[in-house]
Amino acid sequence: MSQQPSEEKSLPPSTKKLRDARNKGQVAKSADLVTAMTMLACTLYIAISVNDIIARVQGLLDLAARLYTEPFDTLWPQLMTQAGEVLLMSVLPLVGLTLLVIVLTNIVVMQGFVFSTEPVQPKPENIDPVQGFKRIFSIRGLVEFLKSLFKMVALAVALMIVYRLGLQSLMESSRCGYPCVQGTFLALLQPLVITALIAFLLVGAFDVLLQRWLFERDQRMTKTEQKRERKDQEGDPTMNQARRKQRREMHELNAKIGVQYSSLMIGTADGWLVGIRYVRGETPVPLVTCKASPDQAASLLASAAPRRVPRVADPRLAELIAKRAGNGDPVPDGTFQAVADMLVAAKLI
User: Fold this and answer.
1) Are the C-beta atoms of 254 and 260 separated by less than 8 Å?
2) Which domains does the chain carry?
3) C-alpha to C-alpha distance for 158 and 148, rounded to whole angstroms
């Protein structure tokens, strides 16, 4: 049997699908921007702290030189202690800064903190050679190749320019000693570092936009998937239509409130008074349309008089209905039979 072709994913991802993917740790990530920001932070740190680092190393070398003139047993512990301090004070801030920049850059790129163990769980497709071959020749693979090629070309061009313009100066600087060599070397290193930072930052900024586009492209939905998701969220369309119809009917029934919609008045002018509506085929059960306490019953009864609404003088039943049901509600349990008898007596049933 021939297999049917898979349905095309032509619809943009829904908010729910993006949220579910985020809960699984699937978000747009940019390793290039993280690398660029880390390089920038480390370069700035080294540029600011280079004099302090050189001073610490120079002090360590001076202390080591004293081993030839002072007792080894006395000087060796001091040398080890100072070496540890130089290592910690020079490397530890750099490591801490690197970790901080990596975390903050990822939070900005991923638009918040994301934690999930699913990406590190072993999956068969991760070791499938066919899937790996497809990933290599996919759009992502092509993009990664082009980004790497751009960075290599930028660095190669910068290195070639520096080589042609500064190599002669570097060779001749050895005549005037270490200060000249150091100055010339830094002058040649500076354009290389700046070029590398600019190239990595440009690629990183472009990579953020590209990764978000690729992620949304991978999360696209088919029409069947969209319908299934909408059904899961909103329920079966047939049932929803029936519920909407039922709510509309109840709203129409509840909207008919007031003495003008009353089929029967129960009560007296000096006691509780309620209006009841019952129309065959319209109201499944008798409904309360209006009610009045003893001090307002006379006014309500006067409003019903011009409309020739039948009335039954039963203040106790009227009080029971008025206190247990609101306007638009069915008559309470326990009063249904009495109200039905009154409707029959009034020839309304």
Assistant:
1) no
2) 27-115 (no CATH), 125-235 (no CATH), 255-345 (3.40.1690.10)
3) 15
